[in-house]
């Protein structure tokens, strides 16, 4: 099933048709997120906002049993990510206790951008990702609820997450 783009009428695949590659090489199939609330975050280990990973992990642990999933997509587009996926994974686990899935590095803007980010930016109507830790909250039906600015603290998203989990 295709849905209409908010920007220009071109048909877009629903979010459940996307796949990403996990750092360990496994495939993340977004169909596995159907019926769950999903928080998607573009991350960067060396970013000053990286401590948000700890708060995101706390939300994940607190609400996972109720249906919250989190997916981190590291990007070096702003030159703040470590060289290898293994270094990124180790860093995020060691410094912030990250247990939610993280993908291999992606590009969030430009000609080679990851199709997921093309989709998310289109759905939000806000265009270009301006910095690391832009966050997207997806409801149980696969609809974008809200795009959050990089400086938005994860705790500020909690009430919206709770509301989405109740629906």
TrEMBL record:
Sorted keywords for this record are: Oxidoreductase, Peroxidase
Which BP terms does GO give this entry?
Answer: cellular response to oxidative stress
Catalysed reaction equations from the record: 2 glutathione + H2O2 = glutathione disulfide + 2 H2O
Pfam families the record matches: GSHPx
Query: So where's the catalytic machinery, residue-wise?
Result: 47
Superkingdom assignment? Bacteria
Identify a single GO molecular function assigned to this protein. Answer: glutathione peroxidase activity
InterPro entries on file = Glutathione_peroxidase, GPX_AS, Thioredoxin-like_sf
Q: Among its keywords, does the record have Oxidoreductase?
A: yes
Family (UniProt): Belongs to the glutathione peroxidase family.
What PANTHER family does this protein's entry cite? GLUTATHIONE PEROXIDASE
What protein name is recorded for this chain? Answer: Glutathione peroxidase
In its UniProt entry, the species of origin is given as: Companilactobacillus bobalius DSM 19674
